[in-house]
Each structure stands twice: as structure tokens, then as C-alpha cells.
Amino acid sequence: MRKTLTTFCLSLGLVLAGSAQAAVDLSTLDAGMAGPRTQVLVLGSMHLSQMPDGFDPATLDPLLDRLAAFKPDIITIESIAGEGCDLMARHPAVYDPEGIAPYCSVPDAARVATGLDVPAAIAEVKRTLADWPAEPRDDQRRHLAALFLAAGDNASALTQWLQLPETARLAGDGLDDTLVAQLERAMEQNGEDYRIAARLAARLGLQRVYPTDDHTGDSYDVPGNDVEAYATAIRQAWDASAALHEPLIRRKQELIERGDMLGLYRYINSPEHLADHINGDFGAAMRHASPQHYGRMYVGGWETRNLRMVANIRATFVTRPGARVLSIVGATHKPWFDSLLGQMQGVEIVDPASVLGPPEG
């Protein structure tokens, strides 16, 4: 009995000692790494689709000039990849079709034009890019644009379209008149995927952008299905922090009204703005008291989404150590992206102020 008790106490002591150990410090694991660090610039963005009437896209030119000077090799965007949309569509019991509809457009027109469903189109994109020439012909660009549309990657399709001479932007090679019209509309749409990412990629001679958004992590069932109570709790949290948000909103509106988009992006990427912004959103949710802890559910879904988005971004440069990566995402994501990507081995987070210049004041 005594031996058994002694053995138990010894085992318990080892368990407790193990639990008290400090976690392994990974921050210096890459100290002696071979080769240059991967440079990652997370650009917090406004959602340009919400710009007021009369927005002049030419006001983005100074911003695009600064980003072009950074010379990214990889550009990622806040859009769900075709395979992600295809996955969610196949599991309606897990992912509410109405909930994913705003993020996933079904590429029916491209499927009809190319004869390819999303998985087949993705496979063909991979095969085509694996054998892509240094100087592609116009017909090859048109064909790849059609494949990207069928794969559910509209921003990459526009990247190809923009690199065609205007006289070559016509139907053929998988593009029918409907798809040509879709691409022409995309050229005029206000959205950071098109106005910033695709245009910058085309300007730099890149063949695609990388959709890295995810809505599997924040697609969860509210306990008791009391969605209204959940929404009310989150609105209450936001209302309680209105004093934090109001000056931020006013400052952004001032910059938008004077057409200073470079100044706007400098401001929304500043640590001061980001700290107040997320404190008034997710900090407020964490402080909100409800028996169901709705605020913590909201933050939990948000953090799961960010973890999966960052994993998607990390995957884009696994085989390209030392690449320069530009990740364009809604500004609220930036603190999480910087923190999580900054923990990856061989990665250096680039200060936006070193690329865009510092904000006023």
C-alpha cells in the first residue's frame, strides 16, 4: 500500500512539475536561419464597396504607388477561395446557405462557358500556372481569366484581364460575352480586391492574387437559437463604447471627404487608431455581461476566423521563403494578423508607416 501511495505521489509530482514548466520559447528558433526573412505587410483596408457616391478611384493612386514600391511577390485578399465556397455549399447543415451567400457567388456563367465546375477549374488553374510562360500570349491570358472565373477567383481573373491590351479584351478562349461583361463590370466596381489588389498585381506583372478569407470558424449555432438576444447583446456592447468610436469615425470621414486616401490608409493602420477601434468593438464585447456570455462567443468566432485566415496566408509562402507578402484585409483584422503572423518562423512584420509614411499628427 505504502509503495503504491509513494508511486502515486511521485507520479502526481511529475505531472504538477510538468504543468508548472514554462512554455517553450519559439521566438528565437529562427535566430540562425538560412536565407532572408519573409517580409509581410498587413495593410488594414477600408471596405471600398462602402465608399460614398462620387468616390473617385484615382484618389487611390498615391496609395498604389507606395504599395508598388514595396514590390510584393504575393498579394492576399479578404475573399473566400473557390474551394472554400464549394466546401461550405456541400455542407448546408453546417454552413447556413443564407449566411454564406454574401461571401460566395456561384460561378454558373463561367461553368457554362468553360464546361468546368469549381474543383475541375481549380485543377486546371494549377496545371496552367505550373507551365506558365514568361511572356504569355493574349489568348493564354484570356483562357486563364476564364479558368479563374470558373474557379470562383474573380480578382485573379481581373488580374489577367488588366494585363491584356484593351484591343485584346474580347470574347474567346473560354470567355463568352457574358464573362467579358462580368470582367468589364469588375473594372468599375469599388472593392479593395479589385481597386487595389488586382490592379497592383497586374501593374507588378503577377499572375494572380490569393483569396484567404474564411467563414467556417465564425459559422456557429447560438445556444437556444436565440439570435435576436445575441444580436441585442452585441449592439449593447457597441453602444457602451460609442465614445471610443465617434472620434475615429469623424476622422475617417474627414479624410474621405477631402479625397486623401493615402492619408486615410496611414491613419487606419496606425497603432493608436487600431487600439481604440478594437477596444471599442471586441474589448467592449468581452466586458459585456450576459448569462450566456454572448460577447465572448462573438470574440471567439472572430478569433477562430482570424486563425484560419492567417493559416491560409501562411500557406501562400510555404514554398517561397524570403518572399515579400502584402496582405490586404479589413483594418479590424490587422492586430490579429500582425500578432499571429509575427509568431511564424522566419517572418518579419513590416510597419505600414515605413511603406505609406506616417499619419498626420
UniProtKB/TrEMBL annotation:
User: Signal: present as a keyword of the record?
Assistant: yes
Q: Which InterPro entries match?
A: DUF5694
**What keywords are assigned to this protein?**
Signal
Q: Signal: present as a keyword of the record?
A: yes
Q: What is this protein called?
A: Polysaccharide biosynthesis protein GumN
Under the heading Pfam families, the entry gives: DUF5694
- Signal peptide start and end residues: 1-22
